[in-house]
Write a structure and sequence with these properties.
By secondary structure, the protein is an alpha+beta fold. It contains 4 helices and 10 strands; from the N terminus they run E-E-E-H-H-E-E-H-E-E-E-H-E-E. The protein folds into 2 domains: about 50 residues, no CATH class; about 90 residues, OB fold (Dihydrolipoamide Acetyltransferase, E2P) (Beta Barrel), CATH 2.40.50. It is about 20% helix and about 40% strand.
Length: about 200
């Protein structure tokens, strides 16, 4: 599973990586941005804004400040970038890979290395995913981990998604466990001592 853009979603933040670039944004900002990108009116309005700015030859750069008397912003968008944004039509990639740190409840384990898929329950849905984290199997082979149905793996899950061009919605089509952080055995109820 390869993609130009890698997205790691955590509870409070999202890490977006493309090549050598790495951007960390608050989770609520990321979620709101993703929602806005799906709204054609928003996308068209932003495009028209950059086109209008580009038409004014006196604009050398733009930036955002809270009040008119505030000092210049630390980050500004240059005229060159404005021109590129005015011309650029951004299209969503047909596929992408999103990673999340999740708890996966084991339904069926595959006790050998390879591409065969384990069965997990995740967010109330049964999924199949191969575990490609070799250190996990090293611990398993050394009998430091004993697996049973109902156990939980806290792991990094790579989720392959495909874009539906009609709706603009991504749907999951493949899963891969790329790293296992912790194995949590299923809690078993202890028997109470019998009274005499």
């Amino acid at each position: 599973m390869k993609s130009d853009v890698k997205i790691q979603i955590y509870t409070d933040e999202v890490i977006i990586e493309r090549g050598d670039e790495k951007i960390i944004v608050p989770r609520n900002v990321y979620d709101a941005t993703r929602q806005a990108e799906k709204e054609p009116r928003f996308v068209n309005a932003i495009s028209r804004t950059f086109q209008a700015i580009e038409r004014d030859p006196d604009v050398k750069a733009i930036g955002l400040v809270k009040d008119l008397g505030d000092p210049p912003p630390e980050i500004s968008i240059s005229r060159e970038t404005i021109s590129q944004l005015a011309l650029q039509q951004t299209a969503e990639p047909d596929t992408r890979v999103v990673t999340e740190v999740v708890d996966l409840q084991i339904i069926k384990a595959i006790l050998e290395r390879g591409a065969r898929k384990w069965e997990f329950m995740w967010r109330g849905v049964k999924i199949g995913a191969a575990i490609t984290h070799q250190a996990f199997f090293d611990h398993f082979d050394a009998h430091r981990i004993t697996i049973a149905p109902g156990d939980v793996l806290r792991a990094r899950l790579a989720i392959a998604q495909r874009l539906d061009l009609k709706t603009g919605i991504y749907s999951n089509f493949g899963y891969e466990v790329t790293e296992v952080f912790e194995h949590v055995p299923r809690l078993k109820q202890a028997e109470l001592p019998k009274s005499e």
